[in-house]
Amino acid sequence: MRGELPRWAEVALLPVLNVFLAFLIGGVIVLSVGQNPLQAVWVILYGAFGNGSGFGYTLYYTTNFIFAGLAVSIAYHAGLFNIGVEGQSYVAGLGVILMGLALNGTHWLIMLPLMLIAGGIFGAIWAAIPGYLQAKRGSHVVITTIMFNFIAISLMSYVISRLLKPDGVQSDESAPLEAITRVPQLGDFIPMFKNSPANLTIFIALITLGLVYLLLWHTKFGYALRTIGQNPTAARYGGISNEKMIIMAMALSGAVAGLVALNNVGGVQGRLIMNFVNGAGFVGIAVAFMGKGHPVGVGLSALLFGTLYQGGQELAFSMPGVTKEMILTIQALVILFTGAMGDMLRGPVSRLFPRRAEGGS
Questions:
Q1: What CA–CA distance (Å, rounded) separates 95 from 83?
Q2: At what angle do helices 220-230 and 242-257 cross, to 10 degrees?
Q3: Residue 360 has pLDDT above 60, yes or no
Q4: Dihedral angle over CA of 79, 292, 212, 133, nearest 10
Q5: 173 forms bridges with which residues in the sheet?
Q6: What was the pLDDT predicted at 18?
Q7: What are the phi and psi torsion angles at 150 (to 5°)?
Q8: Three-state SS string across 185-197, please?
């Protein structure tokens, strides 16, 4: 008899099985071109974790995906589908670099929280506008956040190339931050990460996972946010202002998305460059849905996608028979089975758990 999935199975077991199924089909694809799928998996894992440089790149990608996945998850719990994390992260880069350049030369211990706040504010403002349009004007947040991605690209292209680009510089980028101002690399403290972009922002990402969990499940604000996501009518009768919560949820989502800019602009690049987000905002959608919107699941799925991104590059280099297109196909299969078809195995898995007794002894 079909039972009800416990929370741990919902967050961990079901995504793991979906990922396994995606890799199983991916293995068939690799096998069809005459390559060994087990060797391909080994190359991916070695490329992602086999040395300090590869592990550092994995952590770098994972950091971006944690922030992006959490941003999507926060909005999702409020019943909103925020597809604008890419643009919100991009605009947040402007806040990070403006703060950094204004106090350039100041020690990173002071600048890190200041750049974090500046990026969060810019991301929050950019996300709050679609939130306001949905709450006050009825404009669907999916459409407006998509459009705001394009607006962000055009806006940032103008700002970087026309306003922030120093004289005599050929490429479109801002002036650089001084080394003492940038977020330190992990390699400055742990030698094995010396040749990687991983920086202290990874610890901020882990802290953010915990803070989002506490906010959503252990505060009145989180209760109100989840209530409007599950039943807006009941929330309204309960005295919760749906319009206010929609705007606040989108603003909070954008603020978390803005931390992607801290990782890239304040840490890795040390300057504002074109398209530094590089698709992390869109990957965050898959990360959020694979992790079921739960911070633990988001963290694990972000690590998986970080592994696929870094390990995939090693796979393309070490096994030329596995093309970049095939690697993208495997990544797409993971997104397909954990996102669009994420509930496909729910029925068979739920039968493994006994049905809870109703009202009996």
A1: 21
A2: 110
A3: no
A4: -20
A5: 273
A6: 79
A7: -65, -40
A8: EHHHCCHHHCCCC
Structure tokens at 244: 């206010």
Nearest one of 77, 67, 109, 97 to 260, comparing CA atoms: 67
d(CA 152, CA 148): 6
d(CA 343, CA 15): 9
CATH C-level class of 55-302: mainly alpha
Comparing CA positions, the residue from 254, 347, 309 lying closest to residue 63 is 309
Residue 320 burial (CB count, 10 A): 9
Whole-number Cα distances in Å, 151 to 122, 140, 252: 14, 17, 20
Distance CA 248, CA 267 (A): 28
Alpha-carbon torsion angle 96, 245, 139, 95, nearest 10: -10
> Is the distance from CB of 200 to CB of 267 less than 8 angstroms?
yes
Query: How far is Cα 240 from Cα 226, in angstroms, rounded to an integer?
Result: 11
How many CB atoms within 10 Å of residue 209? 20
Q: Which residues contact 351 (CB under 8 A, 6 or more apart)?
A: 1, 2, 3
Chain centroid offset of residue 214 CA = 18
Distance CA 18, CA 168 (A): 52
Whether the pLDDT of residue 10 is over 80: the answer is: no
- Could you tell me how many helices (H) and strands (E) the chain has, helices first? 16, 0
What tokens were used for 13? 């077991």
Beta bridge partners of 273: 173
The candidate with the shortest Cα–Cα distance to 226, out of 78, 10, 76, is 78
pLDDT per residue over 186-225, tens digit each?
999 999 999 999 999 999 999 999 999 999 999 999 999 9
CA atoms of 323 and 326, how far apart (whole Å): 5
For the record, the structure tokens of 93 come out as 């880069």
